[in-house]
Design a protein that fits this description.
Blueprint lengths: L1 H18 L4 E8 L4 E2 L4 E6 L6 E10 L7 E9 L5 E9 L16 E12 L5 E8 L12 E2 L2 E9 L5
Protein name: Gliding motility lipoprotein GldH
InterPro entries: Motility-assoc_lipoprot_GldH
Keywords: Lipoprotein
Length: 164
């Protein structure tokens, strides 16, 4: 009887922690096997939460100790249902000046929640696509980094803005 009580207790704790984050409307990750090739586009498809409320959009990135840069350049393309597209080249800081990685996590994997768009309104009904690819270059070099090592997962998240 004690074993089943312990299992139920653990299940209850799990449900409490997983149900606490009700602010997200969409949250998905895709693994990057090995190195992230410059031509590999990570894509997420979703239906807009609604067409009247504003949302915060994030690109989520997990990196490990194989990541050898202090920043990260991304090209993010948001495709609307009726053909419109917004393309942004974004730069994110990934490490402190002393080389310590930013992000959450006590292990060698750090999770970074990177701002993409603030108070964004999905003004078209239908299916949207977000395409993310890296645009890294080494200092002083014209050609980009072909295979970016150290990025393990790329994600996309939509949240309701918090009200204070």
């Amino acid at each position: 009887m004690q074993k089943s009580s312990a299992i139920l207790f653990c299940l209850g704790i799990f449900l409490v922690f997983t149900s606490c984050d009700s602010s997200h409307m969409f949250d998905a990750y895709k693994s990057v096997p090995g190195a992230w090739n410059k031509d590999d586009v990570v894509q997420f498809n979703f239906t807009q939460p609604d067409t009247t409320n504003a949302y915060n959009l994030f690109v989520n990135v997990r990196n490990n100790n194989d990541y050898k840069y202090s920043n990260l350049f991304l090209i993010v393309d948001l495709e609307f249902p009726h053909g419109k597209s917004l393309t942004d080249t974004l730069e994110y800081k990934m490490a402190k000046p002393n080389g310590e990685f930013l992000g959450e996590g006590a292990s060698s994997i750090k999770e970074n929640k990177l701002w993409y768009k603030d108070h964004f309104i999905f003004n078209e009904s239908g299916n949207y696509k977000v395409k993310i690819q890296h645009a890294m270059r080494e200092s002083g070099k014209v050609n980009g980094v072909i295979n970016l090592e150290g990025i393990t997962d790329v994600g996309f998240r939509i949240e309701k803005p918090t009200t204070h």
